Amino acid sequence: MPRRLLRDGRVVDDDWLYLAEAGGSATAPLILTLAEWQNDRDRWLAQDRRLGVLLSPAHRVELLVPDITRISLIAAEFSGPGEGRGYSQARVLREQWKFDGELRATGYVRRDQLFFMARCGFNSFELPDADIEDGYTALSTFSWAYQPANDTGLPLKLQRRRRDTPASA
């Protein structure tokens, strides 16, 4: 049974596989750890498939910059409830490096974090199966955000501020 996740405000079956799950598939979209990517970068780039990279909290996103246009998905791992470096990784990827692919939150991801993760630029969330439906409703918990942020990960209905309204309003 495929993994289910939230992507762009909808519950979907995940079409991506982690390398350990791929089982020799030569065409499935593949998520690699940063070490797997760095150790065999040329081999992965030579393959005709979409590629993603999983960052741990300690990884610097700048390590991916030379290849950012070739990477379709970047996942940030949240290792526990007190781990917040993924929020910073997301903001840097979206705002400084203009990453426009799928930005996924993995690991310790819970319902009450989704709105804030989306505000940082995440548009995909791996949640425990039991939390998927609650996570879906969590994205619409707040109807207005007072601070400007990177809302590209939020569904259009949640982007309340009109484009002609200054960010300070």
In short, what is this structure?
This protein has 169 residues and is an alpha/beta fold. The chain is built from six helices and eight strands. Strands 2-1-8-7-6-5-4-3 form an eight-stranded mixed beta sheet.
Outline the structure in words.
The protein is α/β, with parallel strands linked by helices. 25% of the residues lie in helices and 20% in strands. The chain contains six helices and eight strands, in the order βββαβααββαβαβα. The protein has an eight-stranded mixed beta sheet with strand order 2-1-8-7-6-5-4-3. The longest helix is centred in the middle third of the chain and has 12 residues.
Write the layout of secondary structure elements.
Elements: E1 4-7, E2 10-13, E3 17-18, H1 19-22, E4 30-33, H2 34-39, H3 41-46, E5 51-55, E6 73-78, H4 85-96, E7 102-107, H5 114-120, E8 124-125, H6 132-138
Parallel strand pairs: 3-4, 4-5, 5-6, 6-7, 7-8
Antiparallel strand pairs: 1-2, 1-8
